[in-house]
Write a structure and sequence with these properties.
Blueprint (H helix, E strand, L loop, with lengths): L3 H32 L6 H19 L7 H24 L3 H23 L14 E4 L2 E4 H23 L1 H11 L1 H6 L4 H23 L9 H16 L4 H22 L6 H13 L10
Antiparallel strand pairs: 1-2
Helix pairs in contact: 1-5, 1-8, 1-9, 1-10, 2-4, 2-8, 2-9, 3-4, 3-8, 5-6, 5-8, 6-8, 9-10, 9-11
């Protein structure tokens, strides 16, 4: 019998870990909600962001938390340029082409990182990842607490941008009716690029939050993007609240799975949920029917 205090600690740690998952899923669901495509390069772009954060720390000694803002702006610009001048023109407006382009892009990015950094695993090499905070009988990871707070703030800013700004209203208009938005004077190509840039900015924030407690190698993004796909399906494709709540729920499932089944089987419940959602509620918790 597992003591209730250990179960409670696993629940809280699951919520903290789920916030980072939610941040990765936010970018994925935002791109799907507007461009209506599944971005297969999402994991590779997360890996690029983690290497960039690691490189800033290794070269300039810049703390990953201090790198959040410059990294977010830099990856917004990178994502904007990628969609505006690479993915958009090469897909010729066909969703099938876009899928293939993002798949090819992920292969190029991963192999470029492999050529540059080899397959060695790298970490920050500091003890900051082991800092804990005592909360009653529980010991909580300090980096995960910081990650939880930053993830909530980021999700709130993204929601505010989509709800209360002209850019957000243009993004929502293009996601609902592309031709109608174009007739109203909105440039869909610019909005697509802005949306892709926002997705990449979310990845940059997630990379800075993950790096203190996680390693980085050229394949590391794949592990997170599989979980992110499950979160997007659970929360509903294109739903921002769904991605946030789905991420927190999946974090709890992984934590409890690791406690009950062992660390190596902790993600078993995640993919069981993925299959059940597809079978019983394909639109997810907050997704709209097509």
């Amino acid at each position: 019998m597992i003591p209730p205090a250990i179960i409670a600690e696993a629940l809280v740690n699951g919520l903290l870990a789920g916030a980072a998952y939610a941040l990765v899923a936010l970018g994925l669901t935002l791109v799907y909600g507007v461009l209506h495509i599944v971005n297969f390069a999402h994991g590779a772009l997360l890996t690029c962001a983690m290497f960039a954060a690691w490189g800033l720390h290794a070269t300039f000694g810049l703390d990953p938390y201090l790198a959040i803002l410059p990294m977010a702006f830099a990856f917004f610009g990178f994502g904007y340029a990628l969609q505006r001048w690479v993915i958009g023109p090469s897909s010729h407006g066909e969703d099938g082409n876009t899928l293939l382009v993002t798949l090819g892009l992920s292969i190029i990015l991963e192999n470029a990182l492999l050529a540059l950094f080899r397959s060695d695993t790298r970490t920050l090499g500091t003890d900051a990842g082991f800092d804990v905070v005592e909360l009653g009988p529980m010991l909580l990871s300090r980096p995960r607490l910081i990650g939880f707070a930053v993830a909530l703030v980021t999700a709130g800013l993204l929601w505010a941008l989509l709800s209360a700004t002209d850019t957000g209203r243009a993004i929502r208009a293009v996601s609902k009716e592309r031709l109608g938005a174009q007739l109203a004077g909105i440039d869909p190509r610019h909005i697509f690029a802005v949306t892709f840039g926002l997705g990449c900015a979310c990845l940059a924030v997630a990379a800075c939050l993950l790096l203190p407690t996680f390693y980085v190698n050229p394949r590391v993004g794949n592990a997170f993007v599989l979980v992110a796909f499950t979160i997007v399906v659970l929360g509903g494709m294109g739903s921002i609240p769904g991605a946030l709540l789905g991420g927190l729920f999946i974090g709890v499932v992984e934590s409890l799975g690791g406690l009950l089944l062992g660390e190596s089987l902790g993600q078993l419940g995640i993919f069981l949920i993925f299959i059940l959602v597809l079978l019983l509620r394909p639109t997810g918790l907050f997704g709209a029917r097509a």
